[in-house]
Amino acid sequence: MVNIKKDNNSQKESRHPLQRISSKLVIAVLVAVLLPFFGLVFFIDSQIDTRLKENIVRRSLLSLATDLANEVNAMMRMRNSDLLLMTTDILGDRSILEYIGEIEVFKTLESKNKFQPAWRPDTILKWAQDPESDERWSWKTFWRRTQTDIFNQYIQFREAYDLLLLVGPEGQLVACSTIKPDGSPLDRDTLTKLFSRNYSNESWFRESMTGKIAHVDHHMTDLLPKNSHENDDPASNYYIGFAGPVKCYSFNREHIGVIYALVNWKHIQQIIDVPRIKAYFSGLVKDKEPSPYAWIWGSDANTILAHKDRSLYNEKIDGPRVNLPQMVVDARSNRSGLYREYIFRGQRKNAAYQHCNGPDKGPLDSGFGWVVGVGIDNSDIYAMAGELKRLLYTSTALVSLLVILWIMMVARRTTNPILALQKHMRNVSNGNLEPHTHIGTGDEISDLTDDFNRMILELKEKREQLIKAEKNAAWREMARQISHDIKNTLTPIKLSVDLLKQSCNDQSPNYQTILQQTLQLIDGQITNLQKIAVDFHEFTGGRQSILEECNLETVMLEVLDLNSAWAKKLDIEIKMETAKVAGNPGENPGNNKITVVADCMKLHRVFTNIVANAFQAMPEGGTLTVSIYNQDNSVILEIRDTGVGIPEDVRAHLFEPYFTTRSKGTGLGLAIAKRVLDEFNGTIALEPNERTGGVGTVAIIRMPVS
């Protein structure tokens, strides 16, 4: 680096006078200033319209349409995620069983009265008005009351849902949310209507009971009263619905009911109403608001679902009111792109579109296949172009006369400030962020120097803020993850202890059984908490490694022996390919001395995590094959399973902290494994098991031979 700097300095000192900026500037202006200048004016005049249109339309409009579509996809993903969480929660199963139990008891009674469930509108209203009433402590409605409370929390904290329903297997309402998004309670008439309704004929109910996730597109609903206030946005009278089958934990059937969620359309409308759509093009026009706006069409690319003009809801694009059939053809031709130029309400426009995710994207990412579009008036696109043209033609004559007269003086005044600025920039490149250069020429170079000094100050402040923000973000993320994992572990403990207290107070004859079950659960959850603590301790560096020679086969055999009972329970066959170990096919397992320098205990933990992942990938049984061999001064350990495999889009994130494809676990196992192997100059990779035609996964660990 020092030699390079010396060479650069010597080249500068020996530079020919004609190579200096001042000389080049004088020669260039005297010889060819007029021709290039007029050529530039002509080029700009002939090309400016095309360039502006291409840059604004192709980049800005298409980029903005993509951003808005991504926001819609993100919202759909959040709603799908909420639905999956609610449908797999045991609360739904328990609430429906509680309701079915009431029906079974009623059938055994010789009563002529009509059956009324214990959890009905009047009891709900009593519970809502007086949370300390008898309804809170009634075990007959414990699960439905708890489900109602969870639904209300989703309404209140997600700020996206207007109504949540839990429907039983015969189409009867078991529980529902009882508050509005603003926190006020639903009225008695609405609750009565919801509970008296038979949902078995609803399309979303029938589809979900077959085990599928059902989506209900843009529609008005009769489940909730229509907004009647004049100031209310008409968008608030439209909804989209999400329905999913409730997982059954109690009988030999997969689904026991349906959860249905209503999302108000105003949340979708707000995505395309955001001010940044206009702010995107704020520099195009002066003294007026830019014209661009966005819209959403249905999956048929022919029905308006969201628009700044609410009166266009449900209008057809190729219908008489809009009459733009070519836009339908364009939107159906590709996933994203530009519409052909069109005229709407007397304005010639350009627009771009992007399709949102459709129902084929899987449970989490599936959507309605809407088309998001963004358009702008051509008058806005060419406003700057016209102004620039006028400015160019007006200034051309004046610049041509003055430029030669001023060039000599400008050259002198330019060279020295540039050299001073160059020296200052060199100091900055060496790490000195203290601005100390001032050029008092009063021209653009002086302004550039002042701006450069301000930029250095801002850069220094931003660097300090960035370091602080990164530290804070890391602590917040770790605290959030620890809090989430600990809360999930403590929740069943709290519920079990409450049940134990209740059985003690009631002097239940099953008290001892409940006590033993509670103690067993607490012991298991404490073990989970210990594992969480160990995972985070290992991820943050763990204890200091104790380096020694480790026999990989011995460590691997210990791990397999510890997990042999688990393998037997899952009907997993374990194979140890000793014929490949160090090229000694005749030796018995444990006699091969393939050693590496590492911490044996940490390697044991790494192998345990990988074997556990392989077992969890083979819940129906399979084969686990372990191979150890030498290759190019390295020891290769391969652990192959015949499990479900790893999707391509997931494989790239496997070693990221907190990333997991399972509902349990901290998501640190593979991250810890990679960190441990990096410490010992090793590597790990997860690839498809080519021996089984891509079925299953092979973990390949490579470490240097000791």
Poorly predicted tracts of residues: 579-591
- CATH topology group of the largest domain: Beta-Lactamase
Beta-strand content estimate: 15-25%
Please, what is the CATH homologous superfamily of the largest domain? Answer: PAS domain
Main structural class: alpha+beta
What is the alpha-carbon Rg in Å? 35 Å
Helix content: 40-55%
Ends distance: 37 Å
Q: Which word captures the global form?
A: globular
Oligomer: single chain
The tally of domains stands at 4
What is the name of the CATH architecture of the largest domain?
Answer: 2-Layer Sandwich
Main beta sheet strand tally, sense and closure = 6 strands, antiparallel
Mean pLDDT: 79
- CATH domain class of the largest domain: Alpha Beta
Strand element count: 18
Total number of helical segments?
Answer: 22
